Amino acid sequence: MTPSSDGWGDMRDDGQILDDPLLTDFLSGLRAWGTEPPVRSAALTTLLDDAGPSPHLDPVPPPIRRKQMLVAKLAGLGLAAKVALGAGVAAAAVTTAGVANVLPDQAQHGVASIVNAVSPIDIPDIPSQIGLDLDGEVDVPIPTTTLPGAIGGIDDDLTGDDTAEDEAPANHGACVSAVARDRGLQGREHGQAVSAIAQSDCGKEDETATSTTTTSTTLPEGLSAESGPSQNSGPGNSGNHGQGAGNGNSGSGNPGKG
Amino acid sequence: MGKRAPIDLRIGSAFDSVLAAAQAGAGWARTRLYESLAPAVAGYVRAQGVSDPADLTSDVFVTVLTRLPCFAGDEDRFRSWVFTIAYRRVVDEWRSRARRLDMTAPRMEPAAEHHALARIGDEWVAEVLDTLTPDQRQVLALRVVADLSLEQVAELVGKPVGAVKSLQHRALATLRRTISDQAVSR
Questions:
Q1: Relative to the CA of B105, which of A78, A123, B25, B181 has its CA 20 to 30 Å away?
Q2: Do A22 and B125 touch (CB under 8 A)?
Q3: Above 0.85 for ipTM, yes or no?
Q4: Which helix (H) or strand (E) holds B52?
Q5: Per-residue pLDDT tens for B83-103?
Q6: Kind and range of the H or E element at A246?
Q7: Best to test chain A binding among B7, B45, B125, B181 (most A CBs inside 10 Å)
């Protein structure tokens, strides 16, 4: 296009409008509409002011996108991983509360007695205040005694609380059963997931607190490799029992032996 | 009044370097490209009677800047390319409005019309423009406001140059008649 071929110049030059002053006034008024800078939208302002890369590029994900990615990643986890993650978070929270000495007296004692025994962490204990005999059996129905009873392999005499005995096993069993029924994993991975959840404290109300250190540190390994350490660190035989349940329900793996 | 009066915002000989900088992501260069054409695009969009000329103009330039890395050509080609995007957005606006209101011709919404009344003469211009057919209005705005040649308009609207010239001639004849009638009635 040459400079003489633009619209306004053409129309003026070819005499179409010069003979009519009213028409010239009208077209001049119309042309004046194209002289005012318009108000910019926010999106356009961002594009114009951005001194960074071309708008075609999408360099760093904004915070909201990172959040969405995290949510999507969590949503994509298998049931076993979600349960293990939840158990680990809960266990860590109770351990923290125990270290801070803000738990109820009985729970504080339960947490302290287990954590102090299996970890280098020193949690304050208060046996004298709740009348416990540390040399003997527990004589109050603290949560640490309630957990693995009905699943088997634990000494029911330790619990001394029928209610807890009825509830805790059902919850833990439900956890293990749910993972065993989950078809998101196959073969060895499925067996390992069942084994890991069986050895975890999922569904064990206060046992979660007593085995916090073990659970929170061994669960990730349990899902990806051997889960042996948790078997020995927990009270009683819950680990072994959980392994048995995993074998029984999965039927497709060899969870205990990995 | 000069040939491109009242304001010539063209970049001129620096266009190639400005375009290259804008395609590389320089904010100042993008702003320069925007400022060279935004008023004309806004005037063209407004002449088509869209409900929110400023918003549609922003949408046009968001598209322009997003597709800018793919563009190649001189300033005249760039001008034609930008108005092609604007033209398509206007046509989309007409179609969506026709679906909503079954209108046969575009017309300013009350809010936009009220805004136009704030300036002396705008009401008259809008009123006279309403006497044109959509095709005549389109060609007239592309020639007068967008400053495009007959060939560019023909390519943009997908019609032969002769058809565009005929539309322009009929548009001017209609305008002349309308304005003359108004002068007589007053």
A1: B181
A2: no
A3: no
A4: none
A5: 999 999 999 988 887 776 554
A6: helix A238-250
A7: B125
